[in-house]
Amino acid sequence: MSTGFFDGIDTIRYEGPQSTSELAYRHYDPDEMVMGKRMEDHLRFAVAWWHSFAWEGGDPFGGQTFVRPWHPQDDMGRTKMKADVAFEMFGILGQPFYCWHDADIRPEMGNYADNLAGLEEITDYMGQKQEATGTRLLWGTANLFSHRRFMSGAATNPDPEVFAFAAATVKGCIDATHKLGGQNYVLWGGREGYETLLNTDLGREADNMARFLSMVVDYKHKIGFEGTILVEPKPQEPSKHQYDYDVATCIGFLRKYGLQDDIKLNIEQGHAILAGHSFEHELALAATEGMLGSIDMNRNDYQSGWDTDQFPNNVPEVALAYYQVLKMGGFTTGGTNFDAKLRRQSLDPVDLVAAHVGGMDICARGLKAAAAMLEDGGLEQALAERYAGWDTPGAQAMLQSDLGAIQRRVLEEGINPEPRSGRQERLENWVNRFV
């Protein structure tokens, strides 16, 4: 039954690159085979509930611009209306998954018991929607950053009562994710950091955060949740110093506390940029360490110093990202979540649909370009040639040697190497053949 919110908008179809329709897939054909697998199964698209349905259009300098039928989002009736609209859009787009924070799908009731009751009620309601539509849950997570109780963090809060409230909230969210058949659970540490060392005990906060994560892993096994536990790197914003700043920081933290075998990473393009990295760098590092689980696909405004969460529109960037995903063998439980939102001036329902259509097409083009690069093998060949010297018996023996022996060899053989070209521009030109 239609909610009326998307009246006049039909189910989006694949029409091919020559289509002139504003609401058609030109490149995203779910059944197209790419490297032996359906495109839909490669990309595993998910819609973010928070940006698409819960966000009201505010920014640091202005309040609400979106006026939706489910506003204000403060009771279960409007919460269920929001769910009706969400699943209607899922049917229009045809993407296989969605994602949520608890605060997106249930109203804030001011206390834990009522919040939990609301979460459990909407979980049952969404379960019925999933069964009716076939849309599945990629991951759930807890919002432990918006409410004022979390202003000093959740797992890292100096007040143990806040830690307790956060832990209880996460338990409820894992239970809901498990009940809905979620394939992952994400720990998004929006305020796990600090503003000043004048009031911060770094060691205690790190230990408490690690203990919190260990409790989550233990509970996963206790209830038989087979999904992946994910941590999302996030720099600077909102805390000046985030404990989960980037991929390298997260990997170091997880290894220090022995959690590296139980937790992988959900990596966002916008966060990578804020951390001073490229998206492909963060993906490559996580994949190299066996810790790439899932991705949030968005972009930042490169003239802005904060997380603008815009839909992707840059095929070369997206292609290089999927190159890393395909190179590691592709997603397992993870996927491509559009952690992206409309601009606050884009008021119409059709804007929301069109934004996802465009993002899905960009990702499809990037995926196909990445697959073509891998199948061509040019980058892999160039890497093999650049590092070929390390495959020789002499180089391998040197790694098992010591400084004294290496010095004697350099003196005896008169080793005086000349630098070799890194060929960067030629390799960039090679990539441009595919994108």
From TrEMBL:
InterPro entries: Xyl_isomerase-like_sf, Xylose_isom_bac, Xylose_isomerase
GO biological process: D-xylose metabolic process
Cofactor comment: Binds 2 magnesium ions per subunit.
SUPFAM superfamilies for the chain: Xylose isomerase-like (SSF51658)
GO cellular component terms listed in the entry, alphabetical order: cytoplasm
Subunit structure: Homotetramer.
HAMAP family per the UniProt record, alphabetical: Xylose_isom_A
Name assigned to this protein: Xylose isomerase
Organism field: Mameliella alba
Gene transcribed to yield this protein: xylA
